[in-house]
Structure prediction request, 76 residues.
Amino acid sequence: MAKTEKSVKARLRELVELIDEDEDSMEEAIDYLRWLASDEPEELTPEEWESVRRGQKQIARGETISLEELKRELGL
Prediction:
């Protein structure tokens, strides 16, 4: 199991290297990882709800990509 965990951690490190180095992108990634690691549910802020609504509108307009395309873009 330790080998699998190391493999996952190695993959996560590779993905971290793909994040734009601007401060906002890094903070978003950190916030997301903290959220994933948290056991407590968290209420969305008004800004986060706005992001959700923007995403829903993008989906409604057909502005999506397939999982396969995303994997290609991320080199997975």
Q: What stands out?
A: The first helix runs from residue 2 to 18. The mean pLDDT is 85.
